[in-house]
UniProtKB/TrEMBL annotation:
This is Trk system potassium uptake protein TrkH. It is found in: Cell membrane. Coiled coil: none annotated. It comes from the Bacteria. It comes from Conyzicola nivalis. The chain crosses the membrane at residues 28-48, 60-79, 91-115, 155-175, 219-242, 254-277, 327-355, 375-400, 432-457. InterPro entries: Cat_transpt. It is a multi-pass membrane protein. Keywords: Cell membrane, Ion transport, Membrane, Transmembrane, Transmembrane helix, Transport. The lineage of its organism: Bacteria, Bacillati, Actinomycetota, Actinomycetes, Micrococcales. The keyword Signal does not apply.
């Protein structure tokens, strides 16, 4: 017997019923609505005089751009974040990146779990969709995934605990180094946690105007930041599996294996590429000692994945290095992570499909597992939507700014992939260009699959097949 949903008589109850029905029926559109609402709320918070050090109301374009950058955990800014915003403003920034980094739907599910002490089917479906784009795209499906529907409750607890444990652990590793540099204990504790949160959420904002200058050659400080960025970029489903089976790799899911393998491979290849391409550039790495010449390219490789921290002037990189950085940023990090981009698993799927085609095989296989064809179709859709967004934004920004293509493309991809690295164009472009970059950040964070699912009014099943004909490809 099917029971009807409880109808509340009050206006507030009817509004709650409507939003609950809307969230369950169209989770993709619900995600976009929540992100847009959060951007509006944080724009209002940043527009308060108490949010700025000057005590004046900031220009709307700066408040809006900062709100989008914070909620989308991007790290780009139109102002000097450290000196422009007051202590209250920095607290708002810290709260915002935590919300954006964890994911609105996941955070909502955690709060619901804490309040009700149980997770209903509706909340499980929403959280499963947030951790797996395939669920968002096609609803609840039965094939093995990185996180199954029945495990979502455990995943949410893992998300909450991992955020607290990892951020406090990273802060604890940074704190002594800040004390040694002469920073007072309370200020050092604040900066340590600030750096930790910005590393784990892959945002890249910094608490001081001079940024990483005092630690630009500090192996310990930079290595800890890289660790925080890596943990945030691999994704919560991967952390969940590793926490349960860290010593039993055979029990790792295909998603975990693909994410870790591709992430580590890109990190190594990116570091080697920057090392070779910047060998003769005295404005970046060539003027450093040999140890730094080896270390700094790998630090940059990790940061381009979505970290956002930098120890050199990005604008001084060679054009070839900028292109490599563009590719790394566009790929981004792991699915259901704080990183942006098209995700490393998407790249892995495309390469597996190319290898299968080269070998004359019909299906894709990896780590003794067969990958269904709908995953490839989804991967292609993600890449096409991402490339379309980047191309459109680049054309608009080229017309608005008149800057060179390499700088414009770098800035747009950094916004789309929520990387946060900048050549300086974001801070100097006109208001129209700022709005373009803000829209690009929003589209990149909401996700190409989520946006595509939201635009699709309905999914229909075709009960017949048309005659087959093969067009010429290639």
């Amino acid at each position: 017997m099917r029971t009807k949903p409880v109808q509340h008589g009050s206006t507030l109850g009817r509004i709650r019923d409507y939003f609950e029905h809307f969230a369950a029926a169209t989770p993709a559109r619900f995600a976009i609505l929540i992100f847009a609402a959060l951007v509006l709320v944080f724009t209002l918070l940043f527009s308060l005089p108490i949010s700025t050090t000057s005590g004046k109301v900031p220009p709307f374009v700066d408040a809006l751009f900062t709100a989008v950058s914070v909620i989308c955990v991007t790290g780009l800014s139109t102002v000097d974040m450290a000196s422009y915003w007051s202590p209250f403003g920095h607290v708002v920034i810290l709260v915002g990146v935590q919300i954006g980094g964890i994911g609105v739907l996941t955070l909502a599910s955690i709060l619901g779990l804490v309040i009700s002490r149980k997770l209903g089917l509706r909340q499980r479906l929403l959280a499963a969709g947030d951790s797996n784009p395939l669920r968002m795209h096609k609803g609840s499906i039965a094939e093995g995934q990185a996180v199954r529907l029945g495990e979502v409750g455990s995943l949410l607890v893992t998300v909450a605990l991992s955020v607290l444990v990892i951020e406090f652990a990273i802060a604890a590793l940074l704190f002594p180094r800040l004390l040694i540099s002469g920073i007072p204990p309370l200020e050092a504790a604040w900066e340590a946690f600030y750096y930790s949160a910005m590393a784990f959420t892959n945002t890249g904002f910094q608490p001081t105007s001079n940024g990483l200058v005092p630690f630009a050659t500090d192996y310990w400080f930079l290595s800890v930041l890289m660790l925080g960025v890596f943990l945030g970029a691999v994704g919560f489903p991967v952390i969940y599996v590793l926490m349960r089976n860290i010593r039993r790799p055979k029990k790792w899911s295909l998603h975990v294996k693909l994410t870790l393998t591709t992430t580590i491979l890109l990190f190594i290849l990116g570091g080697l590429a920057f090392f070779v391409l910047e060998l003769g550039n005295t404005k970046t790495f060539a003027s450093m000692d040999f140890g730094q010449q080896v270390f700094q390219p790998f630090f940059l490789s990790m940061m381009t994945r979505s970290g956002g921290f930098n120890t050199i002037d990005i604008a001084e990189l060679n054009g070839s290095s900028l292109l490599v950085a563009d590719m790394l940023m566009f790929i981004g990090g792991g699915s259901a992570s704080t990183a942006g981009g098209i995700k490393v698993t998407t790249l892995a799927i495309l390469f597996l499909a190319a290898f299968a085609e080269a070998r004359g095989r019909e299906g894709m296989e990896a780590f003794d597992r067969r990958i269904p064809g709908d995953v490839l179709r989804l991967g292609v859709s993600v890449v096409l939507w991402g490339a379309t967004t980047v191309a459109t934004s680049s054309i608009l920004l080229l017309q608005i700014s008149g800057a060179s293509l390499d700088f414009v493309l770098f800035e747009v991809i950094s916004a789309f992939a929520t990387s946060g690295l900048s050549t300086g164009l974001t801070a100097s472009v006109s208001d129209a260009g700022v709005y373009v970059l803000a829209a690009t950040m929003f589209l990149g964070r909401v996700g190409t699959v989520t946006l595509a699912a939201a635009l699709a009014a309905s999914t229909s099943r075709q009960l017949f097949k048309r005659a087959e004909e093969r067009p010429i490809v290639g």
